[in-house]
Amino acid sequence: MEPETEDWVENVRMLAESARAVVPADGTLGRVRAARFIEPGFSPDVWATIVEMGWLGIRLREDFGGLDLGVREAVALSEILGGGLVPEPVLPAILALGLLTEAGQGAAIDSALGGETLVMPAWQATPDGLDPADGVTVSGGRLRGAKIAVAGGAGADLFAVTTAQGLALVPRDAAGLTVTAQSLHDGTFQARLDFDDVAVDLQPCAAMADLLSEALLLHAGFLLGMSERAFAVTLEYLRVRKQFGVAIG
Questions:
Q1: N or C: which end of the chain has fewer CB within 10 A?
Q2: What is the CA radius of gyration of the chain?
Q3: Residue 169 to residue 30: CA distance in whole angstroms
Q4: Within the chain, which residues score under 50 in pLDDT?
Q5: Does residue 42 fall inside a structural domain?
Q6: Does residue 76 lie within any of the structural domains?
């Protein structure tokens, strides 16, 4: 086995071990069910554990306080989280920290990695839109428009808002910002953000599109883990379910 492959295997093994604090080895989903339809849709205590494990900085360089691991490790972590139906917004937070890094927002990064601030990205304008510049305009230092489907937004303290001119950091209590929590069918929450002349200080962030592409890859890993878990549950059901005294599987 090549040294690079050995490092990757070891990194994934350590991530899987640390994930046991959030994803029970026995597959119990009681914690997940208990958080359904209760804002913000996830457990603050579990979030604190996730912060302590350093997962939010999995893709950040060590000089930013991150783990400095690769995309493969991040996708592997995403798959583990998906298999446990983990409702905490880990993947959006990873995207937000990537945006903060590109925009040179060191203080916000430190606050997020330390658990003092929950930062979520607000990049989407329409259900089928993938352009992070859409939905908002900035003129004269004022932000107008809306962003939708902000994962973790019901509990966020700070929003990393993508615009055509750069990244805007908008506190939850900013004048002119309206945050509307929206309940989803799975019991989690997202948020809609409406900006009415919100004062902002834009920072250049040229890598928005690349960071979003990486986030989509991580989300695919999450969905793969979820699908594998659903398949395993189905197979187990087929093994134990009987009809007219005969196993159906």
A1: N
A2: 19
A3: 35
A4: none
A5: yes
A6: yes
In a domain, 247, yes or no: no
Compute the distance between CA of residue 131 and CA of residue 123 in angstroms, rounded to an integer: 8
Helix axes of 71-83 and 3-18: crossing angle, nearest 10 degrees? 30
* 249 part of a folded domain: no
pTM: 0.94
Q: What pLDDT score was predicted for residue 17?
A: 87
pLDDT of residue 67: 95
Say what the pLDDT of residue 2 is: 57
Residue with tokens 């604190």: 48
* Residue 224: predicted pLDDT: 98
pLDDT of 59:
97
Structure tokens at 212: 């979003």
Angle formed by the axes of helices 90-102 and 106-113, to 10°? 160
Domain count, the chain: 1
Q: Return the pLDDT at 149.
A: 98
- Which uninterrupted H or E stretch holds 169? strand 167-171
Q: How many CB atoms lie within 10 A of CB 109?
A: 24
The domain in which residue 162 lies consists of 3-241
Helices vs strands, H then E, count in the chain:
7, 9
| CA–CA distance, 226 with 243 (Å, rounded to integer) | 28
Instruction: State which H helix or E strand residue 236 sits in.
Output: helix 208-240
The answer to whether 138 and 200 have CB atoms below 8 angstroms apart is yes
The CATH number assigned to the domain holding 203 equals: 2.40.110.10
pLDDT value of residue 209: 95
pLDDT of residue 4: 67
Identify the DSSP state of 3. H
